[in-house]
Each structure stands twice: as C-alpha cells, then as structure tokens.
Amino acid sequence: MDPKQHWEQVYGSKAADAVSWFEPHAVTSLALIERAAPDGSARIIDVGGGASTLVDDLLVAGYSDVTVVDLSAAALAAAQARLGSVARQVHWLVGDITSMDLPGPPYDLWHDRAVFHFLVEEAARRAYVAQVLRAVRPGGHVIVATFGAQGPTQCSGLPVKRYDADALHDEFGSAFDLVEHREHEHRTPGGVVQQFVYCYCRKVLT
Question: What's the pTM?
Fold first, then answer.
C-alpha cells in the first residue's frame, strides 16, 4: 500500500478525534507560532495538518493567511467539515510535501507536527529540507515536532524515526539557527502518553 492510500484508509475508517495524534487544542504548537510570528498577517503553512485542530486555533487567534497541506484528501475534508463556512478562509493543498510544488510567495512560518518523523529514508528527509529551504523566506520560522527519543517506534502501523532536539536540528543543518526546543508529553485519546520534541528554528538570512 502506498503512503497516500494508507492515510486515506486511516481517515476513511476512523473519526478525526479517535486517531492517536488527536489533541483538542494544539497548545504547544500555537504558543510557539504566536511567539515566532505574532502578526496575524503572517503567511503560515501547516504541513501534514490533516484534520488537526491547529487551523481552528490559528483562525481564532486572528491569523488570516493559513495553508494546510496533507497527503490525505479525506483528512482535509474532515477539517473542512468541522470548520464549515469558515473553511473558505484557509488554503487547502493535497500532496506529498517532499515533491509537490508549493505556491508562492514564500512562507513566514512552517509548522509540522505530523510528517517528519515518518521520513525514515535519508533521501526523503533531504527532499523535505530542500522544500523548506525553497518555501520559507530568509529570516522565516520553522517549527517541527517529532516523536522524542523515548517516543513510540511506530505510528499507525508505520515505522518512525525518533529524535532528541540536537539530532532533529542537525537534520536541517547550518541554514537554520535553533531558537528553542521543548519536550511535550502528548496523551492520546486512548490514554497513552507519547513523548514529542519540538524544535523552533529560524532560517538564516542570506
């Protein structure tokens, strides 16, 4: 089964609030975004946003230029249904972030809590970082969360790569300055605690 088919099946068979990564409010992500880009006009992309509630919180916080990307059309449809008419305020894109063409202009902030730890192949991670370099403006902000070193080794039946903060930042290299890192314990709808690590970086001015 290819990755797109896998995620379409996941979101076609489970309620959006029943998957292990669901959180009623993306509190840690939102706090970092508001710190990095307090201006409501900031151009924000949420990678692997799927049916996440982060987009709801961003709109409530006053952000007006939000793009949500996911491999699964079913995941985005769930978010759109939840938002109702407000969904028209969001840019929705279906595709593989490692290879798709993203529309310009460059983004002020890139957020990902869902994709990077699934990139177990080095070539995929290189393609992802190359996409970030193309898509984020110089001086722009990058917030990526993955499973931490004590997190699970699989998610939704797929293998994942775990990180500590230094290892995660190293994947992005010298083009990104590490501003802050945080650890977060996520409690799944089933009551299991999963360790996440967040890295907030700034793209070097060039």
Answer: 0.93
